[in-house]
Amino acid sequence: MSKRILHVITNVAHYTDPSHPTGLWLSELSHAWDVFAAQGYEQRLMSPAGGPSPLEPRALKWPLLDASAKAWLNDPTRMALLSSTARPDEIDAASYEAIYFTGGHGVMWDFPDSAGLQAITRAIWEGGGIVSAVCHGYCGLLNTRLSDGTLLASGQRITGFSWTEEVLAGVAKEMPYNAEAEMKARGALYDKALLPFVPHVVADGRLITGQNPASAKATARRVSELLRA
């Protein structure tokens, strides 16, 4: 049977300020989707609330809109997937070998406290599956606890969008929290590249995380390597 991967994407369309739009950073999904599709894996999209997932406008402009993301935008079938994502209660976690949390600033609002996401992540992890995230996607791991009550991220080597990158991106003042600091406060062994915005992946057993949008493809490749092992 083909391996199955569950992608998690946001439902949030704006920052706290409604005039500042955000959403899914499309290339973080498309790059991983391409890597997994090349291996013949089955893939499905899920969001905390189900239904549509908005797109981050900044990621749809040159030079950030690369060939992979552009191909997704030009494919009506794939775009339709973004308008009808599954809810957590529609997902059988036992059917998936891996979960992959995408980023975009929207996830900072709807990923951390989603009981549905936490339950599925816990089930996949405790079932021997792979938990992965790229960029802000690691916000989905902030509050996920295992059956024994411990935080999944505690004591684990992990990366994700750094506070330095938030500052350089010019959006630090609009963030609802400092994700890097919050992850460290939960006992995670946070790591980042020496330079901002360059690809950086951290693998700690079955936990695979990438630091920023440029890390999506490499993160998916590490997940694929584990799935093939």
TrEMBL record:
Limits of the DJ-1/PfpI domain: 85-224
Keywords annotated in UniProt: Glutamine amidotransferase, Lyase, Stress response, Transferase
Residues forming coiled coils: none
UniProt-recorded Gene Ontology molecular function terms: glyoxalase III activity; transferase activity
Entry-linked Pfam families: DJ-1_PfpI
InterPro entries per the UniProt record, alphabetical: Class_I_gatase-like (IPR029062), DJ-1/PfpI (IPR002818), Prot/Nucl_acid_deglycase (IPR050325)
GO cellular component, one term: cytoplasm
One GO biological process term: methylglyoxal catabolic process to D-lactate via S-lactoyl-glutathione
Family: Belongs to the peptidase C56 family. HSP31-like subfamily.
PANTHER family hit by this protein: GLUTATHIONE-INDEPENDENT GLYOXALASE HSP31-RELATED, PROTEIN/NUCLEIC ACID DEGLYCASE DJ-1-RELATED
Annotated protein name in UniProt: Type 1 glutamine amidotransferase domain-containing protein
Organism: Gluconacetobacter asukensis
